[in-house]
Amino acid sequence: MKKGNIFVISAPSGAGKSSLVNALCKQDEQVSLSISHTTRAMRNGEANGINYYFTDNTHFEQMIAKNELLEYAKVYSNYYGTSVVKIQECLNSGKDILLEIDWQGAEQVKKIFPDANLIFILPPSIKILSDRLHCRNTDSLEVINTRLSMALDEIKHATQFDYIIINDNFNHALIELQCIIQTQRSLTKNMLDQLTQRFFKEI
Ligand code: 5GP
What we know:
This protein is an alpha/beta fold.
C-alpha cells in the first residue's frame, strides 16, 4: 500500500496556522493531525491528548534519550516534539499526516523524510501579527512581546520551506493549502497504486 504524504506547517504564532489547520482537517478525512508532546503549561480551553500530550521535563528528556521522538525543539523555553511511533502508524495506514511544528522541527523532518512538504504560513505584516496576538487574549504581555521579537527571526527561515502562504484572507489561504495538498496527492509517483488497482489489477 502507498504510504501517506507528510505535510509540515510552520508559522510565527498569530499567523493563523491553527485555524487553517483545523478548517483543513474538518474538510479532509485523508489528513490526520499529529498531536505533539510539550512541557508547556496547558492553556484555558486546551485538553490533554487533544491539543497536546502535556508532560514534564523529566519525561520529555527520557523520550529524547530513548529516541522516541521524530523531531523535537525548545520553543519559548519549553520542549515540543513529535512521537515517531504515531507518525509511522499513520503513514503505514496510507493516511496523510500533518505536523504543526516550528521551523527547527520542520528542518529535522525534511532530513529524515526528504519528500515531506514544508509549508510556511506568513501573516500579512508584523503590525497585523501584533494585533492578532493581543486580540486572542491567551498569553501575557511579556509572552506576546517575546513572541513578536522572535517572529522576525522565524520568518527568516521561510526560505527553507517548499511553499509559502500569506494569510491575508482566511478563505484564500485555506484554498492555497488545499491546492498544495491535492497537488502532492496527484503526482504520478503518488498515484501508481490507484492506477494499478483501478486499471491493471487482475480480477
Ligand atoms: P504553542 O505553545 O503556541 O501551542 O506552540 C508554540 C510553537 O511550538 C509553535 O510554533 C508550534 O508550531 C510549535 N510546536 C508545536 N508542536 C511542536 C512539535 O512537536 N515540534 C516542534 N518542533 N515544534 C512544535
